[in-house]
Amino acid sequence: MFEERTLSPAVDAVREEHAPEALVLDTGRDFETFPPAQAEDLGLLVQSLEPSTYPAEWLPEDAPRLLARYAGRDFTIGMPGDGSIVWTRQTRPPVVLVKSRVQGTPEPFLDFLLAEALVELGLEVPEHFLGFFEEAYRDLDAAVPLEPNATYQIAAALYDGWTGLQTREVFQSWTDILPELAAAWADAGTRLEGRVSELPGAVARGETDLADATELACAAIKHGLELPAPFAALDTSAYRDHGPSYAVRWAEKTFAALEDV
Questions:
Q1: Distance of CA 81 to CAs 3, 19, 73, 136, 157, Å?
Q2: What is the pTM of this model?
Q3: What is the pLDDT of residue 12?
Q4: How many whole angstroms separate alpha carbon 103 and alpha carbon 99?
Q5: What residues does 136 pair with on adjacent strands?
Q6: 28 neighbors 101 (Cβ within 8 angstroms)
Q7: Alpha carbon of 154 to those of 73, 88, 105, 141: distances in Å?
Q8: When you count CB atoms within 10 A of the terminal residue's CB, does the N or C end of the chain come out lower?
Q9: Is the pLDDT of residue 261 over 60?
Q10: What is the pLDDT of residues 9-18, one digit of tens each?
Q11: DSSP string, 209-238
Q12: CB 161: neighbour CB atoms within 10 A?
């Protein structure tokens, strides 16, 4: 099920700098969320398992079932929207899991994704948006007049954007010391640039809903791209400093503005 991955010299240098204890493992399968019994197989490779739990009071009554399970006692690794690389601190040492879907991914971009996960581990940001919003997730739910899965998507995007405000400082520092990773980071941003600039028109024409637009815009933050309104308000030091409360206020203002249109 799990096999230790051989890292390129550049990615190994990032691990040594940011998360020297982390194990990087290929999973041999694709997944959104590992069944608890399979996740517990990690116990054979690590020193201990420490499943995270979150207060039920943080969740709205109509929260997606999978989110409620994540908050509970089950040992849960991976959630929808996590992408091809998942990391967790619910093990000692922490692990980075590479899904089988990465097959065919260009090596430079895959190295960037691995390096990004290791940087996030080193920054000790929360493992999931629920650990970021905490009780403010109920406030976000109240601010977003959409169905629960769309609220989940927006929450995940906002958390990704907040994390990106911190990781991009590291990525920018790679230009001289890890140029291959810096080039992959810049190339990924270039590929997003046109789609991001077209977001206001796509939303206005109904070609993209606001949840998808928020996900794309927040993904662009770590690449330092110029964002259109209303997403430009998320690429600020105020968001980095105030996190959940700022995100909730942004959602309140954004959806109120849409209702006035």
A1: 23, 23, 21, 20, 9
A2: 0.96
A3: 98
A4: 9
A5: none
A6: no
A7: 25, 21, 26, 10
A8: C
A9: no
A10: 999 999 999 9
A11: -HHHHHHHHHHHHTTTPPPPTTGGGGSSHH
A12: 25
CA dist 218 to 7, 19, 85, 118, 158, Å? 28, 24, 18, 19, 6
Amino acid identity of 131? G
Q: What sign for the dihedral angle of Cα 187, 118, 66, 39?
A: positive
Distance in angstroms (rounded) separating the CA atoms of residues 14 and 12: 5
Bridge partners (DSSP) of residue 4 are 25
Structure tokens at 118: 């290791």
CA atoms within 13 A on the CB side of 47: 7
3-state secondary structure of 87: strand
Q: How far apart are CA 136 and CA 132, in angstroms?
A: 9
Token code pair at residue 61:
């009554």
Please name the helix (run of DSSP H) or strand (run of DSSP E) that holds residue 176, with its range, or none: helix 174-177
Amino acid at 73: R
The number of angstroms, rounded, from the C-alpha of 185 to the middle of its chain's C-alpha atoms is: 16
Residues in the chain, overall count: 261
pLDDT digits 0-9 by tens, 53-111: 999 999 999 999 999 999 998 888 999 989 999 999 999 999 999 999 999 999 999 99
